[in-house]
Amino acid sequence: MEPTPEQSPHHAYPDHWEADVVLRDGGTARIRPITTDDAERLVSFYEQVSDESKYYRFFAPYPRLSARDVHRFTHHDYVDRVGLAVTIGGEFIATVRYDRIDGQGRPASAPADEAEVAFLVQDAHQGRGVASALLEHIAAVARERGIRRFAAEVLPANNKMIKVFRDAGFTQQRSFEDGSVHLTLDLEPTAESLAVQRAREQRAEARSVQRLLAPGSVAVIGVGRAPGGVGRSVLRNLLGSGFTGRAYAVNTSFDAGTGTVEGVPAHRSVSEIGEQVDLAVVAVPADRVPAVVADCGESGVQGLVVLSAGYAERGAEGRERQRELVRQARSYGMRIIGPNAFGIINTAPEVRLNASLAPESPKAGRIGLFTQSGAIGIAVLAGLHRRSAGLSAFISAGNRADVSGNDFLQYWYEDPGTDVALLYLESLGNPRKFTRLARRTAAVKPVVVVKGARHSGTNPPGHAVPVSRIPDATVSALMRQAGVIRVDTVTEMVDVGVLLAGQPLPDGPRVAILGNSESLGLLTYDACLAEGMRPRPPRDLTTVASPQDFRNALAEALADRTCDAVIVTAIPWVGEDGEAETGDGEVLAAALREAAATGPAKPVAVVHVEMGGLAQALAAATSTAAPPAHRPSGPGPQAPSAAPGAPGGSAARILTPASDGRTGAPGDPAPSTTRAPGHPAASPDRAPAAEGAPSPGRAPVSEAAPSPGRPAPDAGRIPAYPAAERAVRALAEAVKYAQWRRQAATPGKVPEFLDDTIDEHGTAALIGRLLGPDPDPRGRPLTHDEACELLAGYGIAVRPALPAPDPEAAVAAAGQLGYPVALKTTAPHLRHRADLGGVRLDLAGENALRRAYDELTDLLGTPAELRPVVQAMAPRGVDTVVRASIDAAAGAVLSFGLAGAPSELLGDTAHRLVPATDRDAAELIRSIKAAPVLFGWRGSAPADTAALEELLLRVSRLVDDHPEVVSAALEPVVVATHGLTVLGASVRLAPPPARSDLGPRRLPSY
Predict the structure, then answer these.
(1) For the segment 118-142, what is each residue's pLDDT rounded down to a tens digit?
(2) Cα(837)–Cα(824) distance, integer angstroms
């Protein structure tokens, strides 16, 4: 809304304060500034508030607002007086207001930094987390306007409002004065306030997904009067899946007398149904969708699955149509899957929802699948079906204009029915948030990702999201840092998913190989070495081996404490009558399952060649009865068993009677007296004790336990692969993921000692002076001296380099610095190019320096072109390069590599997200392929990696504290046996890019 003329142009309407938020119950609402046009809305809102709530707000009976009140509450300067409203369907459901005050509580202007704040929430919407969301947003607004503290007066009986303030996580003081509770909140964000905010965000977004996946009633809009068509197909699929709720067919073209279609009630609009509709599946042309959305919104529908095409995938006009679709749906509190979606599936027995174009629902299982492509979704569904693997849920989000993979990570994090999350992503709308959510989810269950459109440099049609400019290799490294299992193809995603869903995590990379084919065993051995694992020599059982021989060999391998996993290779064997035994594999599968069920919990995979139905037989459910409640874990003391249904321990091997977590609303934690580390706290509004902290060791991947007598659908199934390389690659990913889980159990820290050598405030002041009062949005590179001064504020010393525009200046510079010296060109085309002759080292005296100067200018150009400098020689060591940069989409990234060809030609560079911990810095150095050069390769002296790790942490801290440092490069950094020397540095400053992962909760708007 635009401001009226009576509002000061200096305080124009702040449209960046507008935001869509998800409330505690999963519905959405819009927060925006109140304007002078809102008088009627305010009066209508106030009339719907109870007398009790009005009394709590004004401390006295206040039945109606006077004209003066309405004027005061709708006229703001957006600086000293600010009002925000929460709206649904365009109408107010809550308001908040602050007024800046001085030390005596009187109205004031800046520099006064305190404000009085007051809330009012419509009674019908209390308990939905409205006030908590409003407090986050009004606090952010106040900080932007220079207000540091809120003061509030609350009646002692107003427990709900007191709890809102108490649970916000801000530093606060409370006192009882004149019959009311006086609260003072310090608005500076704290670790607790951020944790509270993220915990609320997780629960709200998870609940919004749960409402979509577990509706009590579904209306399919666009069902044709005759068989055929998208709408009719979806309705048939919904009914064919055995949906447990109510279903309705809707089409404006139905005759008034049309009673039923496909056996369900038929109506011409949702409003005619007369009963609550939770989910609407929209399959009408794009130009008719707005009317459908309005009908659904007015009828109280909670969510939409929009199959209709004709949106952002069709160009600029379609993008605007898509934005309007999202705005319209959110205005009614609805969330959207789509548009251009394939649909959603939930196999939970209490739901059995197939609101998609897939004619058959997949079997029930413990794998969650999210795709941004319908075609890829079909391919993955087919691949899982061939492997007899089941799904807990399937979502094909199409253009994913609203609900995205991030929302489903929020849901799967707590979902007791999902043990493994598979995602096919073509774009990341909020990479920072994705990384944060993926890290937290990966701490309790595997997250496997295929990233499409990796090298195009643009987003696929329909995906109106920020484009990241960082290379795909960097994206992959950052995903690995977050514990994400990044694979290249959907086939690999299925291979990894079925192994993780059915097998425990390995303790290490030691692999036993056994089978009846020496050649297949050798192929498997080679593949293990290629993937960095430690295979034992293959054990050849010979082609006459019987299923009993396989069973005995597998049991022996599982019992071996020097083995972490087993790969079984199998080809058709020769029977006693001399005939080749192919069969359907059931006999061999039974033998392998029996050995695996009675041995220690270690992953088992099978590589087979021409074995008929072996894969299906291995994947078949082992039993409907609960197996023994105990299984050995090898010689020695018994380790605690992992939770059923988790890759940390197989449910088909240990089944402890427990309540089925899926009997409640999906997304709610399973009933349990304990909670694994890393899971959210029980309170709906309090933060987890340590967000993202995984269980130590071989912690269960999920807490979910199957119901008594019913094993988890996927757990204990042995995955089978038609090629050794596929089995080994899947196992290798499980090994790396398990290692990440163990390491992440004790997360790294930013060393405290750095604080004593860092001048954060002085550096901030320097940056302010360098950028100036009106900085160029494109930023500016710093001069050498400016960069050195900036880096010095964080304890990073750059070796001085003095300009040498002529030989005499070079000699004078060398005299000042002391011999020996280096003569280097700094021209952009020659910088750091010793291979072109632009660097001369170890010049021990004046004659050598003059001779080198003459050679340099004769060979490469004039001094004005070369810009030569003289620098004192540094101790010999390994030349490295340290860089940090801020990508608008991905965030701040810290990079490390060896200088020259290794990083520039071969791309041997490692990356970590900022802020980096001490563990990140250590891993950064050790993760490049050329790392042995730093650790005494071929008898050389090891470099001082401790000093290098400290430098990395200082650079990380610099760009984290000062987002205006959009890029910094230290090159070369010579790492000697003792200490290091930074010989060159370049820094670029710019106004900091907007951060989508900080500030109050809000849904993205593209």
Answers:
(1) 999 999 999 999 999 999 999 999 9
(2) 9
